[in-house]
Amino acid sequence: MGTQEMMKLYYGWIFPYRDFYKWLAYGNDSKLPQADAGFMQRREFCFTLDGDIFDLDGLQAAIKERCPSKLDIGPVYNINPARRAAYAGSGQTFTPVERELVFDIDLTDYDDVRTCGSGGHICNKCWPLMAVAIQILDAGLRRDFGFQHILYVYSGRRGVHAWVCDDRARCLSDEQRTAVANYFAVYRGQEGGLARLALGLEEHPAVTRAAAILEPVFVERLLPEQGLLSDDKRQEALLAYIPSERVRERARQRWAQGEAGDDVARWHALEEEVAKEQATLAKARDTRGAKALDRAMRSVVFAHAYPRLDLEVSKKMNHLLKAPFCVHPKTGKVCVPIDPERAHKFDPETVVTVGRLLDQLNKARGGVKGSDAGEEWRSTDLVPAIQTFRACFLDGLQGACRESLAARARESAAQPTLVW
Amino acid sequence: MVGWVLANSVGAPALTPSKEGLSSEPGSKHALPSLSMYSELPGSEISIEEFEQAALDRLRVLKGLDDLKAKGFRPDQVQDKVLSLVDQYLKAATRESTIRKDTVSHYVLRLAYCRTEELRRWFLAQECDLFRARFRALLPGEQRAFIEGNRLPFRPLTPAEFREVEDDLRATMLAVTGSLQQTNALFQGAAAPHEAFYRAPFEAVPDLVGSRRVYLRAGHAYVSRDQAVSLAVQPFRAALSKALVTTARRWSQVVGPSEAHRLAPIVESLSQRYLGPDYSDPEKRGVTGQVAASDIPRLAQESFPLCMQVMAQALHESHHLKHDGRMQLGLFLKGIGLPLEEAVRFWRAEMAATAPGEKFDKEFLYNVRHNYGKEGNRRDYTPYTCSKIIASVPGVGQVHGCPFRTFGPDALRSAISRLQVTPAKVDEACAKAKAGHFQLACAAVWEGKHGCSCETGINHPNQYFEESQKVLHGEQQPGGPGLSQSQGVSTANPAPAGASPLPASVQPHTKHARVA
Ligand code: SF4
Ligand SMILES: [Zn+2]
């Protein structure tokens, strides 16, 4: 069966429309008086087949009919995007009014610190980079910004998307989105073979927290699995972050003597040498020098593990992003949700593919119960993915949407208050 | 009656306005008139004179502020100087009249500076810096009162909230200041340390969030007293920016057709106004007739700033200049004392190769006379200021504008090198220009050419010329720092009487404007 044909069947039978719709309606599909019946119509969906932008009268019908190789979600506009032309010249401008705050992290941006592969490659050795990125984002978004409804999705190939769906996140201005994105932007690109990092001698609590999350992942997973200290070239690349020739030289000696066997042992040897040097500096009352070494060690960890966000995606309200649950046309993998608490357990190599799902559907065909009509995914391996979607995201979101619609109803009954 | 319908058309800013600005208590360092969000128009009648005078005075403050920044000061370094400008120009006899002057002048300049993107950006930048300076000067209690009075969505922490986040706040401030001492001062300075911090929605301080200069918890940003100015200026900027756009769009409604002919010239000239010495009237300055057409090549060598030299040269080589260039150079020449007859002689000779005899008379003579106020609406045009020249962008085949801005690095370097400037100054000028400090770059060239320091800074090509001539012909007077000197001149020659841009015929019957 060709991919095109499989897609047709996938979107025809398996795609979880109901859950998908419930999410994007944000409670406006309810009968509550404050619900906005036109809400879904004003959402931009982009079906990459012919590059057109369509409105969504029936999400299901449209997707089935288009059978897209790619389905992107844009913002909700003030008017139905399909009628945009009709409003031209009417004086009413066509502007995005709300949009999830989104993040995009892609493994290709880590090629200088991946040794297991590059480009479109992904495996269990480099997945910890994505998993720890989720951990850092999740901690910051929840604790610092107070967001609660965040969906993490495997991008189908070599990356992860995050959708922040709280009311407050959806109505951020571009300037505010940029601020949030920059808040996370400790990694600022490469410069002269080194990562450019916004690190100081003293750190903001968010950076301190990030360091605590990164360290164990760096030491226990990345160092050994990526073999970051396993040959001369890699050793020197890492030592380039250490601002003391004495420490570098001692580390080289110890590593050469073979005293330290594997990558992790080599790292600990380096840590010891740094600690010794710091003790010397402390005796000389050079606290700055000692702190600079701390920062250097932190820099190594951040350079190899801190999330490298594609900031442009987050900054603009009207950036399109691939929808969850669609199928990556090259890999056939489904963009399944990821439980942020279990990000390290996620296995990118065994993500369900459209082919497997169709097989399962075929086998189960005779046995589909009546109650499952329209939810044929129930007889496939998409079940755990949809369970994750609901448990980690949709259930909480729906409760909050009902709550906020009810609150809006109460509010409109009372006097308008200052809205910031 | 001037139907000045600003109140309806500008629209109050998004935030609920306070009834009035905040008075300063005797304790504050500067006797600040008031600090206002300008969300309400002054009531009662406004005379045209008041209208214009107040606007000019405010412009002096804003321009002074801009000059300070152009000299390379950071906003926090100009604090005291800005406040003394405010004292000097915006203070009136009583508290009420001071508030009124502050408000009236702000609104008039809104009108004058709403009309192009460039003007709006300039005005917004200066007003925000002015607001910052005045806000910083308030005592903590006054800042709080302002924030509460304007219903800004921030409030000081309660002691319990403070205790809960104290350690993280300390860590944040340590990371921000990089100094334990400064951090401790922040926590110990106030009698009640919790009052040293405000809590605001993170959305309110995007600049502080983006640079990780605030502690965040659960969507709240904890902003230190020193950063509170960021909190206050944000809604101020947003509201003003919006109001400027609205005003621009409704300009025709704001100033109805019946008032347009009275207000438009004032408003228009305000936005082009340069507040240093007035070079528009060379006759009054007593320089007219000192220069003949035949002197120009020598003077260009000696004392023309780069922009004028480049144009004079282009004219000489191609025997042609486009309209904007003719204006820029022609008015400059008028300003250095070239009388009309000599100007006609000069232009005729320079353009003889492309516009001989009658062609010149037909196409360009009018233009030359026009610059001297002898044709058309007979307005006596003023030589362009640096800021006006810098703002203009030459198209293909045009050579006007400021070379420090328009030239590429290599072209600029070779142009400066031709002026016989010391190599160190060439480097300095190139670096300044690259950093966007065009007038500083120009001053560096001036210094490199004359071998003495340029006290006043460069604000005007005619000033460049006059200072140069003074040095060359030995009448250099010991000048004070630039700002106070140019102020001295402008106060000595107060508008509007002599320098009023209003055509005389319009002035009489416009005694009072009424604010709708
Ligand atoms: S700074 Fe002023 S005087 Fe100097 S070149 Fe530019 S516009 Fe001319
Ligand atoms: Zn890999």
TrEMBL record, chain A:
Signal peptide: none annotated. Coiled coil: none annotated. Belongs to the eukaryotic-type primase small subunit family. One of its GO terms (cellular component) is alpha DNA polymerase:primase complex. Keywords: DNA replication, DNA-directed RNA polymerase, Metal-binding, Nucleotidyltransferase, Primosome, Transcription, Transferase, Zinc. This is DNA primase. It comes from Auxenochlorella protothecoides. The keyword rRNA-binding does not apply. InterPro entries: DNA_primase_S, DNA_primase_ssu_euk/arc. GO terms for molecular function: DNA-directed RNA polymerase activity; metal ion binding. Its EC number is 2.7.7.-. Pfam families: DNA_primase_S.
Automatic annotation (TrEMBL), chain B:
[4Fe-4S] cluster binds at residues 307, 386, 402, 442. Pfam families: DNA_primase_lrg, DNA_primase_lrg_N. InterPro entries: DNA_primase_C, DNA_primase_lsu_euk, DNA_primase_lsu_euk/arc. Its cofactor is [4Fe-4S] cluster. One of its GO terms (cellular component) is alpha DNA polymerase:primase complex. One of its GO terms (molecular function) is 4 iron, 4 sulfur cluster binding. Keywords: 4Fe-4S, DNA replication, DNA-binding, Iron, Iron-sulfur, Metal-binding, Primosome. Residues 471-516 are annotated as: Disordered. Binds 1 [4Fe-4S] cluster. Residues 299-465 form the DNA primase large subunit C-terminal domain. One of its GO terms (biological process) is DNA replication initiation. Residues 483-504 have a biased composition (Low complexity). DNA primase is the polymerase that synthesizes small RNA primers for the Okazaki fragments made during discontinuous DNA replication. Belongs to the eukaryotic-type primase large subunit family. This is DNA primase large subunit. It comes from Auxenochlorella protothecoides.
